[in-house]
Amino acid sequence: MPRGKYVNHKGRARHFTSPEELEQERKKLENKKWRKKQNEDGDTEEEEEEAEGEEGAAGGKAKGSDESSEEDSDDETHKAKGVEGLIEIENPNRVVKKEKKLSKLGMVEPTATEEVKPELSRKEREELERQRAKAHYQKLHAEGKTEQARADLARLAIIRKQREEAAAKRDEDRKAKEAAKTAKTDEVGKALGKKS
């Protein structure tokens, strides 16, 4: 690599702006800001045009004229440059009028007495549907129309029958014990009565 020249990775020489040129550009910008401030205070537009002409004559780019034309074009309709008209680009910072739904265009705005139903998200709709299904199932379950309700009722019937049989058996055992007890007391009473 030769000394004094810098070559980038594509083989082209690098060019650097000299400090003198940078200082001139800075002075021009300060001068332009000062003139703008003077124009805001009441100077005429002729001085501004002269300043732009001086900048163009000095060999620098007429940045001021480009900036002012860009500001004017942003305020008015945006004019497409180059292939910009062919390619649609969405700028997230650009405010766009929101589109209205065709179904809502013909509708009259609801009054205060009418109730406005908000549109629900998919999750909210699914949750409402789940709640409705659960309530419907509980209603059918209470009426005994579901498979689980039938199984529960059959199990309850079997348990009731077993409990009735157990209660009947306990009654028989109790009656048998009472009968045995009375029989024993009768026997004891007869045996004692004979002795006395």
Automatic annotation (TrEMBL):
Biased composition (Basic and acidic residues): 24-40, 164-189
Acidic residues composition-biased segments: 41-55
Biased composition (Basic residues): 1-15
Residue intervals of the Casein kinase substrate phosphoprotein PP28 domain: 91-175
Region entry Disordered, spans: 1-92, 164-196
Pfam families: PP28
Record-given protein name: Casein kinase substrate phosphoprotein PP28 domain-containing protein
Species whose genome carries this gene: Orchesella dallaii
Organism phylogeny: Eukaryota, Metazoa, Ecdysozoa, Arthropoda, Hexapoda
